[in-house]
Structures are given as structure tokens and as C-alpha cells.
Write a structure and sequence with these properties.
- The protein has a six-stranded parallel sheet with strand order 5-6-7-8-9-10. Strands 11-4-13-12 form a four-stranded mixed sheet, with helices on one face.
- Helices cover about 40% and strands about 15% of the residues.
- With about 375 residues, it is α/β, with parallel strands linked by helices.
- It is built from 13 helices and 13 strands.
- The longest helix has 22 residues.
- It folds into two domains: about 100 residues, Enolase-like, N-terminal domain (Enolase-like, domain 1, 2-Layer Sandwich); about 250 residues, TIM Barrel (Alpha-Beta Barrel), CATH 3.20.20.
- A hairpin with a 2-residue loop joins strand 12 and strand 13.
């Protein structure tokens, strides 16, 4: 079997971001679909990487997945990776796994060593917390999210200005939002906080201490993982589980996290960490350090990437919980011929060959790219 074509498609997801789908065709009529990470104002950059990488893999055996990712980094990128590069590699790699599964008539999780569980616990993100300032409305949205069957909710309770240092008012704003959600959902729902690596070490530790009374399930990205030594120091002073990894790519960049014990949980993104096999290998490294894995399934991911991520998670013993954005379900129902099965906050894997999600190409071709409102660059901070 040989690859005959690689075709990228950019379409608007319906909320905030565009999706990048990659279709790979073979001379035996088996087609694979993958999905690469997208980012506002960088979508076309990722797509162009896909187009350039396609010139390197047409004519290749699609089963040689590891060979592709290795030489893409070593030869194509000359060992100089980037978010855009790894997003393109990850999307192509996912499509290759889809082809392999279809050719062997097996879902991806069977090719990854089989399952350790038959369902995956989910936490809900994007349930509306970032859209409201009114605490009464925030309480209602939290209750509505739990009523859908989810037992874990994530939110970013910080002010939207992305300041490195918190004023007293900003700190109180954050605490009030966490308190409101905790009181709304009660003690038996897990609350996950995402700090998005924006604060100074002092501010993030101080805030974590003030939030201890609310029994947070975890404290995600307290500081940037680009300074892993600082992250390890901050972790030593925070009582909640510390999560990091969404800004890291490949095993090489996670190595120091493990060696320094800089996190309790890692959240590599399957659409940009280097691919599904890379995610599995990162998880295997984490397993040796007794660190759990929760993939970063951002709102740039459709049901395709969600299902692909689920296959890998099912095969790893140290999986903890997976991220899910149900705001994307409306477009996904039109885009895919089969729906993901989610019940009582759990994801049940598709048992069809490959990724197990068939794209409605007629809908895909009618969909369009949307250049959302360009972000403003702040002049002062």
C-alpha cells in the first residue's frame, strides 16, 4: 500500500476556532483522516506545514508511522520543532493510524496494546464560566453542567486581562468565582482550575493557598513549563495536584518534568505533541514516575481527535480523566456520520476500525474557514 495524496481542509468549528482536517488517500482505496491543532491567526501556517510534509510522504507505506514522525523532525525540521510543525505532524500521524486500523480491520486501541478500561471519565470544559461575570448566572451554568451528568468541571476563574501579577481585587474576583461554583455544585463534584501559566510564582502559590478550602481536584499550569525548575519549586509549595504539559511537545520536552517531579499530572495534546504514538510513549515514561495522564483536548478538537485521543487513553494504565467540550457537539453532529457515545460523564470508545469516526465529506466541503476577530496586542500591562 502506498500514499497517493494528502489533502488539508480548514473549516470553522462554530465556536472560537477553526478545525484542520487532513485526508490521506492510498492506492488501495483506504482513506485516513487526521486532525491537527489550530490556533487563531496561525491556522494557515499549520496547513502549509501539512502541504510541505505531504511532498515527503506521497509514495510511502502508510504503516511506517514511526519512521515518518522521526524523519519529519530529524530531516524535514532539522531538529527545530515548533507548535505549527508538531500540529501538522500530529494531524498526519493520526490519519496514518486511521489507515492502519482500517487496513487491519481493528480500532486503534487494539493496535496500541488493547484496552485497560472500557470507558473514560470526562471533565467538562467550556460550559460557560468564561462568558459570565455575574455570580448568580455562573452558579446557574455550573448547575446546568452537572445536570448533564458530568462529575467534574474545569474553569479558568482568573480575570481576563492575563496579568502576571494579581491585585487584591483580582485575587478576590478569582476566589469569589471558585466559591460560587463550589457552593453551586456541592462537595461531590470535582472542580479543576486552569491558571493558563499566566501568573508569577509568588502570585500563583499565594492563590493556591487561599483556594485550599474549596478542595480543588487540580491546579493546572500554575507557571509556564518552559521553566521546569521553577515549576518544580512552585509544585513543592502547592497542595493541589499540579498539571502541566500542553505547551510541551514530544518525549524530549517532557523528560525534565519527570526527572524533577515537576507535576502530578501531565496533559500532552494529541493534536500537537507529536502524534498518537508519541502520546502513548510520553504516557509510558510518566508511568515509570507514577505520574498520571490527562490529554489536553482543546476546543480546537472535533469528535475525530476526541475519539483518537480516547483510543490512546484506553490503552494506558495511568490515564486519569479526559477533557471534553460539548459546545462543539452541534457542528460535529453534521460533520460526522456517527456520534460519540457519552453517558453520565463517561466516553465509550467507538469499536469501528481505525479512529472509528466517518466524516460527512459533503458537509465538510460546504463548510468554510472563518478568520475570527484578530486579537489585539496590548500596548501597556
Amino acid at each position: 500500500m502506498k500514499i497517493t495524496s494528502v489533502k488539508p481542509y480548514l473549516i470553522f468549528s462554530g465556536w472560537r476556532r477553526n478545525w484542520l482536517f487532513i485526508k490521506i488517500e492510498t492506492d488501495e482505496g483506504i482513506t485516513g483522516w487526521g486532525e491537527g491543532y489550530t490556533f487563531l491567526d496561525r491556522d494557515y501556517s499549520v496547513m502549509h506545514y501539512v502541504e510541505e510534509l505531504s511532498n515527503c510522504i506521497i509514495g510511502r507505506d502508510p504503516f511506517n508511522i514511526k519512521s515518518f514522525t522521526y524523519f519529519a523532525y530529524v530531516d524535514f525540521a532539522k531538529k527545530r520543532g515548533s507548535l505549527d510543525f508538531y500540529a501538522a505532524v500530529s494531524g498526519i500521524e493520526m490519519a496514518l493510524w486511521d489507515i492502519a486500523g482500517k487496513a487491519l480491520k481493528a480500532p486503534i486501541h487494539r493496535l496500541m496494546g488493547g484496552v485497560c478500561r472500557d470507558k473514560l471519565r470526562l471533565y467538562l470544559n467550556g460550559w460557560g464560566a468564561e462568558d459570565v461575570d455575574d455570580l448568580g448566572e455562573l452558579s446557574e451554568k455550573a448547575q446546568q453542567a452537572v445536570a448533564q451528568g458530568f462529575t467534574a468541571l474545569k474553569l479558568d476563574p482568573l480575570p481576563p486581562n492575563w496579568s502576571m501579577f494579581l491585585s487584591r481585587e483580582e485575587e478576590q474576583y478569582t476566589i469569589d468565582r471558585i466559591r460560587t461554583v463550589r457552593e453551586a455544585v456541592g462537595p461531590n463534584v470535582d472542580l479543576l482550575m486552569d491558571a493558563h501559566r499566566r501568573m508569577s510564582a509568588y502570585d500563583t502559590v499565594n492563590l493556591a493557598r487561599r483556594l485550599q478550602e474549596f478542595d480543588l481536584y487540580w491546579y493546572e499550569e500554575p507557571v509556564s513549563s518552559k521553566n521546569i525548575e521553577l515549576l518544580a519549586k512552585v509544585k513543592s509549595e502547592i497542595k493541589q495536584r499540579v498539571v502541566t504539559g500542553e505547551e510541551l511537545y514530544t518525549k524530549a520536552e517532557f523528560r525534565r518534568v519527570f526527572e524533577l517531579g515537576a507535576a502530578d499530572v501531565i496533559n500532552p495534546d494529541p493534536c500537537n505533541c507529536g502524534g498518537l504514538l508519541e502520546l502513548r510513549e510520553i504516557a509510558a515514561m510518566a508511568e515509570a514516575y507514577y505520574i498520571s495522564v490527562t490529554p489536553h483536548n482543546c476546543y480546537n478538537m472535533s469528535w475525530l481527535a476526541m475519539a483518537a485521543s480516547g483510543h490512546v487513553c484506553a490503552a494506558m494504565p495511568n490515564f486519569l480523566i479526559a477533557e471534553y467540550f460539548n459546545r462543539l457537539d452541534g457542528v460535529c453532529r453534521d460533520l460526522f456520520k456517527d456520534a460519540l457515545v457519552i453517558k453520565d460523564g463517561d466516553l465509550y470508545l467507538p469499536d469501528r476500525p481505525g479512529v472509528g469516526m466517518e466524516i460527512n465529506e459533503e458537509f465538510l466541503l460546504k463548510s468554510s474557514y472563518k478568520h475570527d476577530q484578530r486579537r489585539a496586542i496590548h500596548e501597556f500591562f
